[in-house]
Input
Amino acid sequence: MKAIVFDEPGGPENLSVRIVDDPVCKENQVIIDIKFAALNHLDLWVRKSPTYAASTPHVGGSDGSGTISEIGTKVKNLNLGDRVLINPGFSCGNCRYCYMGEQSSCDSFKIMGAGPWGTEAEKIAVDAKNVLKIPDNITFEVAAAAPLTFITVYRMLATKGNVQPGETVLVTGGGGGIGTVAIQMAKAMKAKVIVLTSTDKIEAVHQLGADVVINYLETPDWENEVINEGGADVIIESVGEKTWGKSIKVLNKRGRLVTIGATTGALGETEIRELYRKQASIHGSFMGSNEDFLKSMNFLFDGSVKPVIDSVFKLSDARLAHERLETGKHIGKILLQV
Ligand SMILES: [Zn+2]
Output
């Protein structure tokens, strides 16, 4: 099969289109002929850092959709030709965290494309328990664009943030993959949504349904605007050092700050008194459980959250797709058509 392979960690120039062996279908797996793969920032880290990819040569890609072309002997409830998407979180099923339903804390948790080979290829072998059928009204493009960000955002908003109708959600990184989903999903949960973003993304963020959009480049004291809007009950914090201290300041009483990343640095300053006076809490969040996956896919299947698709590249142009993701100018997902 054709795949996008790199032999050494490094820049997008290390990616090459290559013919590799077809994956072998184990008894509990299916082979999926991939129609679309979607990129995530994780793909950049995997490509750049030797600590992510378990071994080289490596094929990245944590999101994908396609049709089943081969079925393992022990697989039930899936058929040849089924249109499917993939839950990219692989857990052991046997450790204490798996028993608790906390798969993304599994002792041997892995994300497809980081460790195991991913979806930037014509075929992939996946455990049947990680495969979900796509309803007829959902296109392969949209199905590929959704899983990793939808699971991650659902866990932040619902499982960790416990967002209630009428509460206010602040999204600190409004234009990225997480942000564009978080805005829509928080609106679907009947929350008021305030978004921090940069100049060139303001219009797009408004169109996604944000109630208040603040340009943090023009408004360095953005915390005052958030406080004037009534503060935030839940914060989807992905920026890190640059916004951390102010995020804690704008948290309401009983507020929940949920952190998923630290793109501007990992050493934020915490005013401890703000936390106990307001009885606020800080939650770390990482990907999601199988339950988070299934519940997040409901938002895709019922149409209440629509993945924003920035651009579609041919599989053989994966290098260009990686370069676009690296610019940070994209709004929503970058896809590869296989
Ligand atoms: Zn486990």
User: Anything to note?
Assistant: Residues 91-92, 94-95, 97-98, 106-108 surround zinc ion (CB under 6 Å). The chain is about 30% helix and 25% strand. The chain has two domains: 2-146+307-337, 151-284. The CA atoms of residues 22 and 51 lie 25 Å apart.
